[in-house]
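Internal ticket #5521
Category: modeling
Description: The requester needs a full-assembly model to guide mutagenesis choices. All entity lines are attached below as received. Residue total reported by intake: 1031.
Assigned to: D.W.
Attached entities:
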Amino acid sequence: MKNLTLEHVHKEYGKTTVIEDLSMEIREGERLILLGPSGCGKSTLLRMIAGLEPVTGGTIRMGDRIVNHVPAGKRNVSMVFQNYAIYPHMTVRKNITYGLKVSHLDSAVIERRLDEVLDMLRLTEYADRKPKDLSGGQRQRVALARAVVKQADYFLLDEPLSNLDAQLRMHSRKELVKIHEKYHPTMIYVTHDQVEAMTVGQRIALMNAGSIEMLDTPGNIYHFPANVFCARFIGSPPMNIIEKVPYNRESLVIGTSRVYLPEEWRAEVVDQHPDSTYTIGIRPEHLKLIRTGLGEWERQDQDADPEGENASSRIRGQVRYIENYGNQAAVYVRPEGLAQDLVVMENSRPPREGELVSLKIDFRNFHLFSPEDGKSLGWPAACIREVSEAVMEIGGPDEYPAQHEYVQHEDISEDSAVSGLFPGSRGRRSLPAFSRPGL
Amino acid sequence: MKLPLDAGGMTDRDGNSKTQGTGETGSAGAAGWHVFLILYTCLILFPIAFAVSNSFKTSSDAYNTILELIPRRPTLDGYRQVFAKLPFVRIALNTFLIAASVTACKTLTSLLAAYSFVFFQYRGKKVLYFLMLITMFVPFTVTMIPNYLLITQMGLRDNIWGVALPQMADVLGIFLLRQAMRGIPKSLIEAAKLDNIPDLKIMKDIIMPLVRPAVISTGIIFFINSWNEYVWPVLILKSVEHYTLPLALQMYISAEGGTDFPLAMAVSVLTMLIPLVLYLIFQKYIISIFAMTGVKG
Amino acid sequence: MADQKKQSVLGYVFLIPSLAAFCVFMFYPLFYTVYLSFFDWNMIQPQKKFVGFQNYVILLRAPNTWKILGNTFWYIVILLILNWALPYLVSFVLSFVVGRMRGFYKSALFLPSIISLVVGSILYTWILNPVSGPVAILLKPLGIRLPFWTKTDGWVIAGLCIITTWKTFGYNLIVLLAGISGVSPEVIEAARLDNVPLRRIFFDIVVPMSSATGIYVFIITIVQGLQYVFTPIKVITQGGPNYASSNLIYMSYHNAFTLFKTGTASAASVLTMLLFVILLLLEFRFVERGVYYEN
């Protein structure tokens, strides 16, 4: 049994509480990501699992065994440290075999395992070098090799790629997944990088301030964030969140624009949680920018009157700022009467700054949150079905993110959006934000 | 202790680029400083050259050609006299025995204490460290009378072990080795712990090899300092055959200059010989470890 | 937890050798010296006579004491100029002004630090010999005559300070260089681009940014300097002429081992320690306050 159970785990340093009351189950052989902003307690949690940090309260169970007081060396875990922690005075070979030798493993076995990892991580020709004669990427692989060679049941990684440059990081992500698929240890991987989390993880535990905000597959965290924190943390540029949006007469009042809420949202979500205001969320890639000629809004939009009956599904605004990414652009639009910008991803010719535009919300990918606690109020059944199917189409959550990093998504075309289909339902295999350079 | 190595290039670049603006050229300024520094370096090194050259002169040459650095008639007379007039081998051996035992003791106790301060958690650790550190600011006059009485009571006066005994531990050593051990990333130890490597093996296989350079340089500093020590031996040692080199040397000083000039220079040269050789070999280590002493933490 | 207990025990065990040595040869003597300062004794008499603060009173009433305190002040001033201000400047020049030969200067200027002060003393008594020494010979044609500095008030302090500086300059330089290396070259480059003169760069940028080390060296220049200067005093002048070269440290020694007055010797040591403690407190205060720290 290689599963891991945390029950009411509690951790304090002196008077500061790092982890309040955390429970979760990590399944045997899965790749679980602990993701969160710095200081959220994810590294502390990992170190408690490793046995490098005592637990203040609660229990950690490995299989059936409570390991709270089991010293690190007896937990059958291997770990890759953020700074690699390779012994600077030992050669690569010695670094990898040192632990095995001290534990008196048969030397033939050691040799065989050594050769295997050296080969797998392309280190064979560097076996007799010292760490100072290796590049950053090679050092990272030595650290990985040293952890892998132990063939422990639990494979822990503490931000193992954060010291690599973008190119190497991309490569190493794949390597990590490959290694995991070879040995199937229970892998717990700490990172603050959402791309790493999405690409490596089978499940992600999104942490904030010492507790888990959401524990689910990458696809579900992206498409169905449980609360405002999750919605904001995943995706880049982050989801547009507008707080305290007044709701009346079946429509949301965004600035001076009145946006009609579709029937299924009203029946299945809003009626279950009646309120006068809501916090709403729309991802930049789910907003559609409509250009209406220079300096003029469309006639019918101009007629729309926030107090009147004529709600439309468009938000009027002015382009304030454009960030060009090359293949697309993030357009910052200031809706009329609102004190914040909304970001729209635009992959055709971007508008000019100062231009007057309209924004159209795609209600298949729309989020309503409670104005009090920021929790998601849910989605209409049709939305869930459609989005889930789209996710399934690209291979299911398990392999979903890792294989589709480079897919271009020119499908997010104006046509599909305007016609109200799930925008780019085929093309959106990669999350648009992730394929951009410089993330 | 790394220095901004490209600062020099910067000087020249900037010096040239702003020549017109201020009329002050960086390179001319740098040249002026070079002249100053070279003169100053010569001034600092002159006494050593002075000692070496005069120690090889005859008595009359030494007085008459005191300014000439190359002896006209080189002779070993000065050195011969050293061995004739003093139990020199005995004195050198005394000095060496004290320095070696003090170095061994201090290195061992400092290593243990530093290891304790860095790798163990216990109550009162910070207070104890602070207490030890603060002794750097205690003048030797505060401890000299009681220690003198103590050594006398133990019957170790006029005995080289009486000199060595009170020097078994050293704050500077604890400080330097603690700094060196703190420089070892915690994760190295943790990685070893995860592999179930026993503490003793961690100490032997990981920590010791990594602090070895610091241990060596600290040891050299201990040795040189003890070799040169004057204040404490002069209180304890009374008879010439128990003397250390600085004490023997002291016999050839008087405010007027003393009588046997080449002999005095020869003893000086012999006294500074060992530290100089050590310095020439381990220069980099010694300078870098001394540089650490000003770093807080 | 068992592990924690093991840690504590081992921690103390490892500390014992040093701690024992410190207790016997540092902490116990410290308290014993304070104790002795309240007694009249000569190290031989079987009975010590309790005299309260008498020793301190005697010490502070003696006219020599005030002369010696004055000497101590001048020692401090001269040592601070030669051994703190000068190496500070040189370390700045080495770091940011001259590029080449930095390693050479460093090694050469540090070299005397590893040589015994007794050697330094004997060499300088010859070099600075007012009649037959090389300096005197060189200055003679210029019509300058060296004073008999070992016998002259004032000059004697200067001479002894030069000897001490010869030994300690290099160490202070190395430490200050390390402190200044914390100032990033980019900051200096930026100032140079703004055409800030070197003098201003030194005083407005380098000194404030390396002040933690600067204060440390300032303090040790006083604390160690007064103790270092003991050796040349002892071997060359024995505090003379007429106490003109004695300082607080030598006064303690002189009282204890020449006059065999442990009471006044201890009182003088305690006063010296108080002076150092005040300096130390000042350092904590300064360092805690407006001092620039890299981290």
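Resolution: model delivered.
Comment from assignee: The beta strands of chain C are 39-40, 49-50.
Ticket closed.
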